[in-house]
Amino acid sequence: MTEIVWLDREAVELLHSESLAEHGGLPGLRDEGLLESALARPQNLHAYEDVSDIFALAACYGVALAKNHPFNDGNKRIAFVASLAFALVNGWLVVVDQAEAAAMMLEVAAGDAEQAELANWLRDHAQPRS
Fold this sequence. Notes:
By secondary structure, the protein is mostly helical. The chain has 6 helices and 2 strands, in the order ααααβααβ.
């Protein structure tokens, strides 16, 4: 297996800024600790629970960012974008329409979809990156 490529804070903050520029919203980081916690969670899952499944780890990013609410606005959007970006840098392209993505992330944020469900959903919409 190849080495897992993790998302770093700078990349996530840049993706968040780009999302706000495109879709609007209040800029700014609400809580630095919550962002750091969300970004560390997938690495901890890998290190301490030996999880190497890219979709499980991508879902971990998504759930952590959606539930931690580290930014002033756009938390569900960055949760989804971070999940896609993580999958992409690790060899998978997730293709899904905007309405379906929004519905899934609303379920995640509300606690109606668990991490495993998000992982399966990402897997169902993924194809190997060419």
